Task: structure prediction
Amino acid sequence: MSRQANRGTESKKMNSELFTLTYGALVTQLCKDYENDEDVNKQLDKMGYNIGVRLIEDFLARSNVGRCHDFRETADVIAKVAFKMYLGITPSVTNWSAAGDEFSLILENNPLVDFVELPDNHSGLIYSNLLCGVLRGALEMVQMAIDVKFVQDTLKGDNVTEIRLKFIKRIEENLPAGEE
Amino acid sequence: MCSRTTNPPSPREEHGKSISTLEGMGFRAGQGLIERFTKETPSFKDELDIMKFICKEFWTNLFRKQIDNLRTNHQGTYVLQDNRFRLLTPVSNGKQYLEEAPKFLAFTCGLVRGALSNLGIDSTVTAEVSVMPACKFHIIMQKS
Result:
């Protein structure tokens, strides 16, 4: 006797539920381990960073994108290739600063927060902060130091989720002694 | 007898605590997942029916493949064999890093235990691995 599972498009959706529930279990556990939201946020950022410094290799290997020539190109690659590859969504890139060193990613939906509600006693929690760490770690490995943070969050009642990325500086690769 | 010490936990104790924390996280996730997976399925005939679901649909939804082999003594013990467990394939293709394997299996043990729990079955779930990426999940149903 066999029960046919509904594969096809269903199977992709099911995998994202495992992802969402696993992330939720992770955040819940961190909230138990640390006494305040600020520490949880820091841990999420740190974990994200550790993921990001490795994820970039997987990304570069699988996506075949070349070196970006400027920050605008970087933004497009992050939104259209990286987010699509790992989260199945394509945020829009907007709100460029005049200097071209700062932009926003607008996420209409965030797979990490499906079925999630923030309880009242965790108003300081940045639930998806892992993502900021991932971006920071990944870009550091391609010689970019950035500042990244959530400025809007649907979990907190905003209409969209907005992540703001700011280019801080280029990280010079270390040259061996004796070279210019 | 248990002894109370004021020493910090040994690495071994820390390790054990981490494994059970991971298993607990898996348990909660498993409860949530089985609810969503079985929303439209008709109710299960018996325990074996449930185990077949775990081996086929549940495993496929999570890991895109079925359990390769299911054995049971028909007295509440089941052994699920996965010859290429998805969470172990990136780790090693043999005995390298064998001592790290429990960390990669604990969450899944919890997933299964949580899923069964929401289907009304109390169980213990442990994993056994000798050559990666193959592993076995041992499920023992608790008598209520």
Summary: Chain A has one domain: 16-170. The longest helix of chain A spans residues 37-63. Chain A has a mean pLDDT of 89.
